[in-house]
Write a structure and sequence with these properties.
857 residues; alpha/beta; Leucine-rich repeat, LRR (right-handed beta-alpha superhelix); 24-stranded mixed β-sheet; 5-stranded parallel β-sheet; 11 helices; 47 strands
Length: 857
Amino acid sequence: MALIFHLLQFLLFITHHANAFNPFIPTDALSLLSFKNSVSSDPLNLLSGWTHFSSSTFCSWYGVTCGGDGRVTSLNVTGLHGGELTASIGDMSELRVLSVAGNMFSGKIPVSLLNLRELEVLELQGNNFSGKVPFFKMSCFEKLKLVNLSGNAFSDTLPNGLVFSRNVKIVDLSSNQFSGSIPLNDSSSCDSLKYLKLSNNFLKGEIPPQIGKCRNLRTLLVDGNILEGEIPYEIGNIVELRVLDVSRNSLTGGIPIQLANCLKLSVLVLTDLFDDRGGSDEGSLVDDRFRGEFNAFVGNIPHEVLLLSSLRVLWAPRANLHGRLPPAGWTDSCSLRVLNLADNYVTGSVPESLGMCKNLTFLDLSSNNLVGYITLHQLRVPCMTYFNVSRNNISGMLPGFRKERCKLSSVVALEPVFLELEGLNDAYLNIPVLRFQQNAFIGSGFEETIVVSHDFSWNSFAGSLPLFFLGDYLFTPTRNVSYMLSLNNNKFNGTIPYRLVSNCNDLKTLSVNLSANQLSGEISQELFLGCLQLTDFEAAYNQIDGSIVPSIGELALLQRLDLSGNKLSGALPNELGNLKNMKWMLLGGNNLTGEIPYQFGGLSSLVVLNVSHNALIGTIPTTLTNATSLEILLLNHNNLSGEIPLSVSALSKLVQLNVSFNNLSGHIPHLQHPSDCDSYIGNKNLHSCSDIYFDPPYNSVPIAVNNSHSRRGRKVKTVVIALAISAFVALCILLGIVLVICFRRSKITRISSIRRQEVVTFQIVPIELSYDSLVTATGNFSIRYLIGTGGFGSTYKAELSPDFLVAIKRLSIALWESGPKEKLMGLLKIALTCTEETLSIRPSMKIVLEKLKQLKS
């Protein structure tokens, strides 16, 4: 009996562990182990439990789901760092969901995936897969519903059998390298297709008119390709269409009126959704290779499309659109939240009926040809987080803002319209609102910061400045609000009121630009004391008088102060030295007196200080060298005396120092970034600039002096050198003007819409020329005005008057260091030939350059 009992125990043991040694290990388990072995990095040890298994234990592994029969039906793994898909994946024939998104996998897709006839969801996005997608038979994936291959490096043509399969609902092939045309023809099947995203590839040809067959399509995104032709009118047959983005292609033609048949259309994007014209690509949502806008449509957006009650986002800046906005038609049923028609050719006035769109939170009509008056009450500007009508010709007065009852939803990011598609989390609508309203989420406790911008600049608004305020709905205990108000380059007059923004104390920061108007009078103390949140205050080029009020020193957040070009008088307040965050202090072109406060040395963040063209006296305070962030220091055209502090040479970031036309004396300090000698002229007691740099920006030419020469010989040589340099400088100016005359024989290029008068002869140059005028026009021959450099020197752009633009050639003195007399005479002869009035006698630019080369050799 004991023997039989032990035999039974042994049989039970063998039976229990039989699967561990079974040569017929389930195929699915082997496929999973092969998948694990192909992973090159698993930093989170997600697959560490994929080891011991029986016929059923592998179903509990991370990312694995099995059906009732023990077969694997879903593999959903993310968080790995490298690897590839092996052919054994195709052996899991019951697989319905294959999701390996965001694993940095590479290589090609195995053809064995064609064996997965039960597959319903295929998600390979966010990897580095490349090559051709091996899906070419529609019959292979009759059950497939969702395909996402975005963010890889797939190439070749689009897999037709995958995109337009009979049951596919959602397809995302964006951000790859697919080429060729969109494979949609009369035989294609797309009855079930609801979401198609082909963005950011290299697709060419036209948008096929057969797209109109996809009547259940709700989202069509073909932006960022090389598509040509027109938007097909057949799109109007897609009655379920909610979102259409055709931006960043090369489309032409008109906007089809048939789009008005898409009664559910919510988002229409015609040009670049991601181009903020800000110059910086930081935070860009698309790869640089996809940037750039080439769509150039014809005509206007049909009013029937603009007035669609379902339309929430219309994005069409720089689309070459013409025509007027609908004079009427918007009603209470308007759903419009975002309207961007900036940089087009829209004419007429801003219609009052647009104010019926109570949800409108983003309106950009800048850089058009709009005229007439604007009714701010009707437009509910206080409820808008972004309002821009700059660079038009809108006129009239701005009435004071009034309190508005704004809908809370107007500030909330637009919710996705695709939530009814199960499994799809597309925040397409969130992107433009969050990006272009400049919303950001910062800090702890889920505090929200929103930047509100109202821009009325570059118009013809007149009258006194009104009182501005924002809708109360913006201010909540968990939200910080920053406000940017731009009123510059208009015709506002009167004084600056002591209150500009009524909500000022509720703001986190405030930026105000009042420059280039007709404002006058004094700035009151209360303006700054009542709004300590100011970070930028610009009121340059007005007629403001009085003194700079000391209360500015209370603005601890102030970073930019620009009061240039006014009639301010009095001394610089010492309190300005308290502004530890100050970066740009621009006070030039006033009547300021007194000394530069030594407290300015405490401005540790100061980058630019401009107090030029005033009547300042005293010495340059040595404490200024403590402002170690200084890059530009402009003290010219004052009455400063004493020496330039030698410690200025310790300012490593200083790239421009101008102390010209003062009463300075002593030595010029050795700067790490030397300034032109023109930055020191006009100081009769200042040592010669040539002691340090021999007449920059010319090439430095050391002059050796033989100590054995007699004193008389040294004086004669000094006189000769001085006369030669003076003559050469004059000839350089003359030659620069002459070269311009020769170069501008046919026509003058139109620059910045400013009319240019053609200069035919030297005798009829329409402005008095002087060395000082050239110095001023080129910013002391600053690198900002540098056009180019060559073998004979440097060329600078100089706008001598609003209607006279020239190029100034400053020749390098190093070219003439030997035999100056003969070469100067040759240079004069060339210059004289260029002044001939007879065209047949006057040499061409090519001949002038050849003669200069001969003269140089």
